[in-house]
Specification:
9 helices
Length: 204
């Protein structure tokens, strides 16, 4: 009986410890649970498009968990889960002359397209939550909500997406400050001028 009680007490203690770690998310735990890949690309395009690097990383984590081969049932592709039509439009807007869907599996191209698109949404809506909502649900839906006078996001899935991205950004800020250049006291490095989007590869 004492043995059983001891096991129960141990399991209860482990459960409490797990809940504490899950709630507080110390850096070592955050780095295990929330990976960061392609940090030099994330940091570079965050600078290029004047984005919060932690926000960009959080969008990528929420969309694909940094799986460059991710593809959704709706046809969204790659790290930032871009729809081919959206990506093709970005390529045309930024001077690219060729585009193929397979380009979106290239981490550099995908993050560059996604960064351009996210900056465009932030500029259009001048509101972080609305921009993220548009990234998830599409601009047409957000424009319709605004035309109806709504400021709250009516789609539960989109509300969850926005809240999750904003919470995850805080985790990336704490856990990966060095990798994302968040603690840099010096002025940001001047980013290299990228080639036109859609023309970095033979097909793109």
């Amino acid at each position: 009986m004492k043995y059983v009680l001891g096991v129960v007490a141990l399991l209860a203690a482990l459960a409490v410890a797990f809940l504490y770690v899950e709630e507080t998310k110390p850096s070592w735990y955050a780095r295990l649970r929330y990976p960061l890949e392609y940090d030099h690309i994330v940091r570079g395009h965050a600078r290029q498009y004047e984005l919060d690097a932690a926000l960009l990383a959080a969008v990528i984590y929420r969309e694909s968990k940094f799986d460059s081969d991710a593809r959704s049932s709706s046809g969204a592709v790659g790290l930032m889960q871009l729809l081919p039509d959206t990506a093709k439009g970005i390529a045309q807007l930024t001077g690219g002359k060729r585009f193929e869907v397979d380009d979106l599996y290239d981490p550099e191209i995908n993050i560059r397209y996604g960064s351009f698109y996210l900056r465009r949404l932030l500029r259009k809506y001048e509101d972080e939550r609305l921009a993220l909502a548009a990234y998830n649900a599409g601009q047409a839906n957000v424009d319709e909500w605004l035309a109806e006078g709504r400021r709250e996001i009516p789609f539960p899935e989109t509300r969850e997406f926005v809240e999750n991205v904003l919470e995850t950004r805080e985790i990336y800020e704490r856990a990966y400050a060095d990798e994302l250049g968040i603690d840099d006291s010096q002025s940001p490095e001047e980013p290299e001028q990228p080639e036109p989007v859609g023309s970095t590869s033979e097909s793109g």
